[in-house]
Amino acid sequence: MINLWFFAAMIMALLAVWVAWFMAPRWARKGRVHARLRNAGDVEAESSSFWLSRFATRLTESSLAREDFREMQEAFSATGRHREQSQVLYLVYCWLIPAIVVFGGFVFLGPMGGMLVAAGAFLLPRRTIRSMGRRAEQRQNIEAVELCHLTRMLMEAGLSLERVLRLIAAQGRPMIPMLAMRLDRFNRLMESGAERTQALDELGENRRIPVLRSYVVLMKQSSQLGAGVSDSLDQIIEEAQKVERNRIQEETNRIGAKMTVIMMAFMLPALFILIGGPAVISIGEALTG
Fold it and tell me: pLDDT digit string (tens) for 209-225?
C-alpha cells in the first residue's frame, strides 16, 4: 500500500514538472498572442480553439454544406460578422436548432406533422438570414451617402484618405454604425501594411451596396490619377438620393395596391351588410307577414 502511494506521488510530481517546464510557457505564449489579437480587434484566433467553431469549420468546408454556407455567409458578412462567427451562427441556426425542432415535431406530431415541421425548420432560418442581409445592405447603402458627405468635407480640409476614414470610424460611428465596422477593417488592413487598393477592394467587395461600391471606385481612381473628388462625390450623392426616392415611391405604390386588396376583402362586405341589411330585413318581414 505504501509503495502504491509512493508511485502515485512520483507520477504526480513528474506531471507537475512536465506542466511547469513544458506546457506553462506554451500556454503563456498562446495567451499573449490572443491578447495582442484582441487588442488589434481580431477575435478570430480567440474562437479558433472553441470546439463548436472547429466543428462548424468542418461542416461548412464539406461538400454537404459548402454552397449553402457560401450564400449564407454573404448575408452574415453584410451584418458585420467575420467568417468564423458566420460559420458558428450557420451551424447553430441552420442545423442544430432545426434538428432539435424536427426531432420534437416527429415525436409530438407524428410523421406527417414532423415532415411539415422539418420543411419549415430548415427553410425559415435561411429566409430570415437572407432578409436580415438585405436589410443590412440597404441600410449600409443609405449610410454610404453620409460617408460621402463626411469624406468630401474632410478631404476639402486637406486630409488624406487614410486619415479621413480613420476619423470617420472614430467620430462618425453614431451616424454610420454598420459601415463603421467595414471602416474598422479597412483601418486595420492599412495599419498592417496592406496596399490602399487592396484595402479599398475589401471595403467595397459587396456589389449589392452600389453607393459604397461607387465610392470605392472613385477613391481608387483618385489615388491613381490624383484628381479631385468633391464633384464626383456630389454626383454619387445625387444619384443615390434619386434612386432612394424612386425606391420609396415604388414602395408607396405597392402599399396602395395592398390597401386596395384589404379594402375589398374586409371593408366591402361590411359596407354591403350596412347598406343592404335593412332592405333584406324589410323583404323578410314582408314575406313573413
Answer: 999 999 999 998 887 76
The string over 262-281, giving b where at least 16 C-beta atoms fall within 10 Å of a residue's C-beta and e elsewhere, is eeeeeeeeeeeeeeeeeeee
Q: Residue 144: in which H helix or E strand, if any?
A: helix 97-156
Confidence band, pLDDT 50/70/90 cuts, at residue 231: confident
Q: Could you tell me if residue 198 is inside a domain?
A: yes
Q: How far does CA 24 lie from the centroid of its chain?
A: 38
Share of the chain above pLDDT 70, in %: 81
CA distance 201 to 189: 11
Residue keyed to cell 451562427: 89
Distance of alpha carbon 54 from alpha carbon 112, whole angstroms: 35
Which residue segment(s) compose the domain that 150 sits in? Answer: 137-246
- CA-derived radius of gyration, the chain: 30
Within a domain: 196? yes
Quote the CA–CA distance of 238 and 198 in Å, as a whole number: 27
| Those residues with Cβ within 8 angstroms of residue 2's Cβ, 6 or more apart along the chain or in another chain | none
What is the per-residue burial (b if ≥16 Cβ within 10 Å, else e) of 42-66? eeeeebeeeeebeebbebbeeeebe
113 within a domain of the structure (yes/no): no
Average pLDDT over residues 113-132: 90
Q: Determine the Cα–Cα distance for residues 176 and 146; give it in Å rounded to an integer.
A: 7
Non-local (6+) Cβ contacts of 53 within 8 A are 47, 84, 87, 88
Query: What does pTM read for this prediction?
Result: 0.69
Computed from CA positions of residues 186, 189, 190, 195, in that sequence, does the dihedral angle turn out positive or negative?
negative
**Domain count of the fold of the chain:** 1
Q: What is the pLDDT of residue 109?
A: 84
147 pLDDT above the threshold of 90: yes
